[in-house]
Write a structure and sequence with these properties.
The chain is of the alpha+beta class. The protein is built from 7 helices and 6 strands. Helix content is 37%, strand content 17%. A hairpin with a 3-residue loop joins β4 and β5.
């Protein structure tokens, strides 16, 4: 995996047979809408948080208070995105693979000759309480709600977020290092508006030129 090539705009980055309520470590990246720098600026390789950035950090640190069996590892708030490691450790849900839950559900589905509750069956296939999606969605909603209540009506997130399952200690250490070093490498970050603007200008130049 190449962490420097993280793309927050993928159409679908969720594995179809993966239970994201399963226990383990997850690396997530959440971007602001159009990668606008709502959270502050990098000055001398250090992140200087804006008012929204401080709220984004505060609510992130409060995730474990609201989500049972959820723990936070390394994280960083950047000008227009955040990186963080979330650990799920629910003793009632040790299975990572969603297929095992589907097998259990299928075994309990009545035959056509019996009455059954369709909503109950569908709920088992929906995002579960304490799942990664539910945690991130709640976090994003909290930040957005605060912004609306405090006059920052233009604030918005990208609708999706990047997620990566951390499979071993080696990967965990590399991702921690990547997160810590993010402010230092901001000038090279593909999320940096200056780089995005430069790429846009280069694309426009070559599109309008006679170069083949």
């Amino acid at each position: 995996m190449t962490l420097n090539n993280i793309n927050c705009r993928r159409k679908s980055i969720r594995l179809p047979n993966r239970n994201y309520a399963g226990n383990g470590y997850y690396f997530v990246t959440i971007c602001t809408h159009q990668k606008i720098c709502y959270f502050g600026n990098i000055i001398n390789h250090q992140m200087q948080l804006s008012s929204i950035g401080k709220i984004a950090q505060r609510f992130w640190l409060e995730i474990s208070q609201h989500s049972k069996s959820t723990y936070l590892d390394e994280y960083i708030i950047m000008p227009n995105h955040l990186h963080g490691i979330i650990a799920l450790d629910n003793p009632d849900n040790p299975c990572r693979d969603v297929t095992c839950r589907r097998r259990r559900s299928a075994a309990n589905v009545p035959t056509p000759n019996h009455d059954y509750d369709l909503s109950q069956i569908m709920s088992e296939l929906s995002p579960q309480s304490g799942s990664l999606s539910t945690i991130v969605r709640s976090y994003k909603s909290s930040v957005t709600r605060w912004c609306k209540q405090n006059g920052f009506n233009n604030f918005a997130w990208q609708p999706r977020f990047y997620e990566h399952i951390i499979r071993n200690d080696g990967s965990l250490d590399k991702i921690r290092e990547y997160i810590v070093n993010n402010p230092i490498k901001w000038s090279e970050d593909e999320n940096n508006p200056n780089i995005l603007s430069l790429k846009s200008k280069e694309k426009k130049f070559f599109n309008n030129s006679n170069y083949q």
